[in-house]
Amino acid sequence: ALSRDQVRLSRRMSLVLRHRPEVAGLILDAGGWVPVADLLAALRMSRTDLDAVVAFNDKSRFAVSVGADGVERIRASQGHSRRVSVDLGLPPVEPPVNLYHGTPRANLESIMRDGLRPRGRHHVHLSGDVPTALAVGRRRSADVVVLTVAAGAMAAAGHVFHRSANGVWLTSVVPPSHITVK
Ligand code: HQG
Fold this sequence. Notes:
A three-stranded antiparallel β-sheet has the order 1-3-2. α1 packs across α3 (47-56). The chain is globular, with a radius of gyration of 17 Å. The longest helix is centred in the N-terminal third of the chain and has 16 residues, at 4-19. 31% of the residues lie in helices and 19% in strands. It has helices at residues 4-19, 36-43, 47-56, 108-114, 130-138, 151-156, and strands spanning 34-35, 62-66, 72-76, 99-104, 124-126, 144-149, 162-163, 169-171, 179-181. It has two domains: 4-76, Orthogonal Bundle (Arc Repressor Mutant, subunit A), CATH 1.10.10; 99-181, Alpha-Beta Barrel (ADP-ribosylation fold). The protein contains six helices and nine strands. The structure holds ligand HQG. Ligand HQG is lined by residues 59, 61, 79, 103, 107, 110-111, 114, 116-117, 119-121, 125, 136, 140, 168. Keywords: NAD, Transferase. It holds the Pfam family PTS_2-RNA.
């Protein structure tokens, strides 16, 4: 398991790699990658801590890859802010018939009127199973509803889905007509 300090570093990595790279003096490339060496220097963290965070992060939020130039880079697998212009380059994937989204009950009326919107992020995030959707909703409220998204029908109607490296389903918007309350 991660130590408390490593969990704190993990949060800092999420902030920098998804939302505010400039606070660490970093610039993400078009795919959202930064050299591992630059991140270590910017966050003054050890390689051991970085490896632990990448390996034991509860959601596998970070991916490490060696480029064609031999440089080792790291990026967040999903969750980027709209203000950070990153294209993960994920291919379109045929979704399952249903996907799920957990949200505070207080959002329900607005969602059934306007659909699911990406808000500050690049995509609406959907889960492949109900327990995961419940956990996502509980980050924000104890009173959570799980919405069933008719992903198969959406795909048939031309909506595009992607799946992040850590298994989160991504799409641009979900119209209310494809949402039911489970
Ligand atoms: C809601 C975590 C009212 C939406 C998770 C959500 C996920 C609306 C909130 C990832 C709405 C946005 C993303 C509408 C959407 N009216 N409320 N029309 N449309 N909402 O955090 O899906 O731990 O941007 O239901 O596991 O909660 O960070 O999205 O409650 O994968 O790696 O607006 O964040 O991953 O909140 O979570 P978020 P999310 P990490």
